[in-house]
Design brief:
This protein is an alpha+beta fold. Among the domains are: 51-148, no CATH class; 152-251, Lambda Exonuclease, Chain A, CATH 3.90.320. The protein is 54% helix and 12% strand. The protein has helices at residues 3-13, 24-32, 34-42, 51-66, 78-92, 94-99, 104-134, 141-148, 196-213, 237-253, 276-279, 285-303, and strands at 152-159, 164-173, 179-185, 219-224, 229-234. It has a five-stranded mixed sheet, with helices on both faces. A hairpin with a 4-residue loop joins strand 1 and strand 2 (164-173). The chain binds iron/sulfur cluster. The site of iron/sulfur cluster has 12 residues, from helix 3 and helix 11.
């Protein structure tokens, strides 16, 4: 028996395992459809990258770098600075983009979409900078930039007792000392105000931040980069209670690897779901998992 086969059998026999740490994203996934949660986090079927995920990463990375420091030089153009940073990430992600085999015009549309989002963001930032200069709170654009710069760029928050963790995109402290946690959204799904999904996610961030930093944030926000709009939610004890109950509920319901415990939640979203072919009986999830494991093994063997 070849070593590959040996490892292959061992791996194939490896049982599925429940998710060890849940997150706001996986919790929302569970509410969207428990079966989809099962495929993502228990069977761990590999998520096929799509252009929306890649665009989201590039825009997030650009903003993170943008807020590292005010650019050097006499005449600074913040918009151009953001676009220059984006260009480096665009180049960095080209390999992934190519794997999607999009038409050239689709690639151009995706790039333009990212540029539009960043442009909207900078317009809002410049408006805030102008306001600070106008009211005399800042002496220069540079000073205003540092006043508006998030307190932390992306922060990892975790509570071991709740088995829950996540990344908060931005934390700001206002002049009055109020702390706001914000999540950037790059998706085009947008209505007026927040959805239940956003509220759930933000409430969990506020609880995790509260438990880890021992500080209760004042506000949580979702920032729609594409539209230049931000919606806020006040952090209250009942919001934290709601987050705790939600985490505990989902943790309890996801301790099994029995697929039957993760019912299908069929909706109009099914046609966009990557598991559509499995739910409609065209593919078998167990054979997909086996094939993926085998591919991983072949790859790791080649690397040795
Ligand atoms: S196709 Fe529908 S029912 Fe099936 S996993 Fe996706 S969302 Fe759930």
């Amino acid at each position: 028996m070849s070593k590959l086969k040996e490892i292959g059998l061992a791996k194939e026999e490896e049982p599925l395992t429940p998710q060890k740490r849940i997150s706001p994203t996986s919790i929302n996934n569970f509410f969207k459809c428990p079966r989809s949660y099962f495929y993502d986090y228990v069977a761990k079927i590999r998520v096929i990258p799509n252009i929306h995920l890649i665009k989201g990463s590039m825009v997030h990375e650009t903003l993170e770098k943008f807020f590292k420091a005010y650019p050097k030089g006499d005449s600074v153009d913040l918009a151009q600075h953001a676009l220059d940073i984006f260009e480096t990430y665009w180049v960095k992600h080209q390999k992934e983009v190519r794997t999607l085999e999009l038409k050239p015009e689709e690639v151009l549309t995706a790039k333009q979409d990212c540029l539009n989002m960043l442009n909207e963001y900078i317009i809002t930032l410049k408006r805030q900078i102008k306001m600070l200069l106008d009211v005399g709170k800042a002496e220069s654009e540079r000073h205003a930039y540092y006043l508006l710069k998030p307190k932390f760029r992306e922060i990892f928050v975790e509570d071991k007792e709740l088995h829950c963790c996540g990344y908060i995109d931005r934390i700001t402290k206002g002049f009055d000392g109020r702390i706001t946690l914000a999540d950037y959204k790059t998706s085009s799904n947008y209505g007026v105000g927040m959805t239940e999904e956003h509220e759930r996610q933000l409430s969990i961030y506020s609880l995790l931040y509260n438990l880890q930093e021992k500080i209760m944030p004042d506000l949580v926000a979702v920032s729609f980069l594409r539209y230049g709009e931000t919606y806020f939610l006040k952090v209250t004890p009942s919001l934290l209670r709601y987050a705790r109950d939600t985490i505990t509920d989902v943790w309890g319901k996801t301790r099994t690897i029995d697929i039957e415990a993760y019912p299908l939640k069929e909706s109009s979203l099914c046609k966009w779901c990557q598991y559509h072919s499995i739910c409609s009986g065209h593919d078998d999830w167990e054979s997909i998992v086996r094939q993926q494991r085998l591919k991983d093994l072949v790859k790791s063997e080649k690397l040795k």
